[in-house]
Amino acid sequence: MRNSPLVTVICLCYNHANFVIEALESVLNQTYANVELLIADDFSTDNSVKVIENWLKQHPEIPLIVNKKNQGNTKTFNKCLKLAKGEYIIDLAADDVLKLDCIANQLKGFKETSHKNVGFIYGNAELISEEGSFINDYFKTDTNRKRIQSQPTGDIYIGLLNGNNNLCSISSLVKREVFETLNGYDENLAYEDYDFWIRAARIYNFDYIDEILIQKRVLPDSMYTLLTKKNNKRTRRFNFSTYLILNKAFILNRTKEEFTAMLKRIHYEMTIAYKTRDFRLLMKYIFLELKVRLKTKK
């Protein structure tokens, strides 16, 4: 790794007028200096664009992409990725806030890792309310803000399949090479991280640094708060995306152990489908489970 590689932060905004300036300032205030900031607004219906444009009067060198219609995170991010010049990439939501030494710590993690072929460095996050009040840490910590349980590192593919390896994607610094190898995010999905982790883990190792790297804002209408809502269109699209991801993983799997691990996640998703009354999705999972079980008997 070069001494001062360029890091690109792609900040995606959708109706985050109340928070976006704090997110942008957190990028510019990093203790690590060699940072490129790209901003994209995904057709916000509030005054996000006006707020960003006013802020950009003091930073005219920073580009802003404004979608003419809502395209979703995956498509918008991939559009920005084509413009990024950095050797490393951060995907930042406009309602989240980077800690001052976030990038410095992430790069240190890449430099000091004991694993070979590392594509991701990630750490812990501090969850905050809409008003910015502390809620808790993403991974449970002790009085020194260090993780209570050790975090799996290296080859974590099986742990991602069975759900034992819980990553904190919002705190990730990713080599640009990973995005290029995987052709960015899958634009057919409602969310990007789980699919991207699985595809990356088939090729790259992961490492964890035990630092609070980012503040994650928990909003009432965030995608993850909709996970178990009944008869909700966004919930169904989110959960169907997980089904598509597991079908892709079925193709990536190589061993009985991997297919066995996949069964645990399928059973969890079947429970979610039942709780949300998505019985069509539940039937799809039943057929997928049968396919996976056949692979475990060979």
From TrEMBL:
What range(s) does the Glycosyltransferase 2-like domain occupy? 8-119
Q: Does the keyword Transferase apply?
A: yes
State the Pfam families in the record.
Glycos_transf_2
> InterPro entries under this entry?
Glyco_trans_2-like, Glycosyltransf_2, Nucleotide-diphossugar_trans
Q: Which residues cross the membrane?
A: none
Specify the superkingdom: Bacteria
Keyword annotations for this protein?
A: Transferase
Q: What is this protein called?
A: Glycosyltransferase involved in cell wall biosynthesis
What organism is listed for this UniProt entry? Flavobacterium limicola
Per the UniProt record, the lineage of the source organism begins with: Bacteria, Pseudomonadati, Bacteroidota, Flavobacteriia, Flavobacteriales
